[in-house]
Amino acid sequence: MEKGQDILRLDAGEPDFDTPKPIIDAAKKALDDGFTRYTPIGGLPSLKEAIRQKLRRDNNLYYDSDEILHTCGAKQALFNACMTLLNPTDEIVIPTPNWGTYPSLAIMAWARMVEAPTRYEDRFILQPEVLEACLTEQTRIVILNTPNNPTGQVYSREELSALGNVLLKYPDVFILSDDIYEHLNYTDEPYANILNVCPSLKNRTVLINGVSKAYAMTGWRVGFAAGPVDLITEMEKFQGQSTSHTAAVAQKAAEAAFNGGLDDVHNMVKVFRERANLVAEGLSRIDKIDFHPAQGGFYCLPNFERVIESLDGVEDDQQLGDWLLEELGIAMVPGSAFNAPGHMRLSFAADNKTLEKGLDRLHKAFG
Ligand code: PLP
């Protein structure tokens, strides 16, 4: 890398926005009002009510209070569900490429991860016949994630419905629907999860969501799980003996986020959508890189195989990650971290100037 060249960070896993002011104000008020003590394990009743209303408003789904558990981020909701559902020898089906935490859930629960591979040619969308081939007597959980980290792709209603039709045939399998990027959807279709297209799976589906990505609240650590009451009750017991709950003040902030309407979310989504286009335009000018334009989240997962072939001394995406940092001053996460060798995850949780510079450097090197 030329001396003095700045490092362009295209590797962020969180929005580069600040938490909206009304949410910060609500948190300050909560502290003044004395929200400094233990809360119920499931969450403050007012937070659970806000989550209930959010699920009605945004997802057209109806839950009772005892079907909802607040958690320390979506991550803990996933962890609670896996620790509660999985026994050793059980299998958890994870479509690949996958977010890095999913395999660890299997490991921590002593269960077996079964990879359900997706293909670049299918936009990394899980095909029903692949899902079906992964399901066995031991399958306990299938994870679905749309919009997807790391692929940036969004499942259409038809694609979800095809998976739902398979899952209907396997009544012992639970579905964890990781909806954390729900609002960051740049397709023309409204967001849909598996329950929107297959409501009869409700008694064995857990919706996982939270405030981290949509409200730029990653550090507040508030997520939730919504699912069948028996399972939610068990997950709550597990949480009661581990973290208990997230900070009372963070719960009040999340409550304000859910109750505060979607104006700030829409403003942020507008910026992300523009950046998704900017990245797509920039990458389409680069000969050696194939990609699908991001449809959601803030990630794109371009295929760098032809770039790797063209570089002496670079054998795989991990070495390419080092090379890009050293030679071009660009930080991106190698696809191997997501079971996507040969790819790099480009995050557009970065300002336009950084993105333009990064795309320019890539174009100069590989265009
Ligand atoms: N699910 C996916 C697919 C993610 O990418 C992330 C964060 O990167 C999470 C869940 C975790 O969300 P939280 O910060 O609410 O724990």
TrEMBL record:
Q: Which PROSITE patterns match?
A: AA_TRANSFER_CLASS_1
Q: Does the keyword Transferase apply?
A: yes
GO biological process terms, semicolon-separated: amino acid metabolic process
Q: Which organism is it from?
A: Marinobacter subterrani
Source domain of life? Bacteria
Q: Which InterPro entries match?
A: Aminotransferase_I/II_large, AspAT/PAT-like, NHTrfase_class1_PyrdxlP-BS, PyrdxlP-dep_Trfase, PyrdxlP-dep_Trfase_major, PyrdxlP-dep_Trfase_small
Coiled-coil blocks? none
Q: What class of enzyme is it?
A: transferase
The family database entries (PANTHER family) matched by this protein are listed as: ASPARTATE AMINOTRANSFERASE
* GO terms for MF: pyridoxal phosphate binding; transaminase activity
UniProt similarity note: Belongs to the class-I pyridoxal-phosphate-dependent aminotransferase family.
Q: What is its EC number?
A: 2.6.1.-
Mind listing the UniProt keywords for this protein, alphabetically?
Aminotransferase, Pyridoxal phosphate, Transferase
Cofactor names from the entry are:
pyridoxal 5'-phosphate
Record-annotated Aminotransferase class I/classII large domain positions = 6-362
Q: What is this protein called?
A: Aminotransferase
